[in-house]
Amino acid sequence: MNIYLNGQLTKLAEPPMTLEHALALYLTENDQQQSFAVAVNSDFVAKAQYAHTQLQEGDSVDVLFPIQGG
Known about the structure:
70 residues; alpha+beta; Ubiquitin-like (UB roll); two-stranded antiparallel ribbon; 2 helices
């Protein structure tokens, strides 16, 4: 199954794939410990729904980390 993760075409081995599983493959352990937001096809998904959100062929997943600065 092919999806877009932060704009990059990514091949996932096994459909059906949940958002939670895709994030575990994509994010490093350090990334997973940080705060971030996720949108699937431009719709934000609550963290409690990651395990229940099924990804489909061609979906676009955007992982957004907060930017700090002054």
